[in-house]
Predict the structure.
Amino acid sequence: ACFESNINEQLRLLKAAHFGKTFLTPMNSDFDHSAFSNACKILRVIYSLREEQSLCRTLTYDQFINLTEGQVMRILIRYHVYFLADEISKFLNYSPKLSSQVYVNWACAKIENSDGDEGISSEKSQEALAATIYSKLRDMKYICFAEIARKAVERGKNYLALRLLEKEKSNSKKIQVLLEMKNYGLSLKEALHSRDPHLIEMVIFKMHRDTELNQLNVWALLDKSTISRNILIDYLKNFDPAALEDFMMTYSKGDERALHTIQNAYNAPNFERKHGFIQFAVKFF
């Protein structure tokens, strides 16, 4: 039956096989009864692929069993048959991560297809779209809302992206999308909330390297938090000593300026410069 392309002939052969296997028991045969049910499942899937009008793809039994789970899902996603992909994933007990990827691609396609909808640029319409997407995905595991949010950013729907990022559990993925949006205030807030120094450093690095930003405004924002301020000082000390001088002179208190100047005196190459730094430091005590 697995090598037969005619549906009626397949059914006739499967009925014969079903009848015959009832006489095969562990006592008189080593026949694997699960092989019969697995073959029936795969043949049913192949029939569904053949009948799907938007797909119209005929696969033989041999071709299908030589495809990996990921390859099967990619084929279905390519043709935007998300419902069929989800049903096949459940029917053949594919990995939950593959099912989640189907839903993520569905959400991205829904965002793309909404471009022509009237009023989709308004916050109210994007709020409704975010609610629709979340209602479908909230019970799914392994959903990457950051990936969907990135698609929203690509389509110019920043409000939708922010609403979707609220559901993202991974701080690093969320912050990466916020940085791509150049929403530095929110990305810094999320990084500080995570208390992950690597994420805070990443945000500070992006802000400092963005030539479109006024560095004084950047420093003023980072100076509001003790954590971000200390990490900024360490970053400037290692990568931009000249900027560190400007920052310390602008945003440091008197005793901090004095100690920083004494440190400069310690690192100065000759006595004259050391003496000059010490005299300058005395003014701040």
Summary: The chain has a mean pLDDT of 82. The two ends are 92 Å apart (CA to CA). The CA atoms of residues 191 and 200 lie 5 Å apart. The chain is about 70% helix and 0% strand.
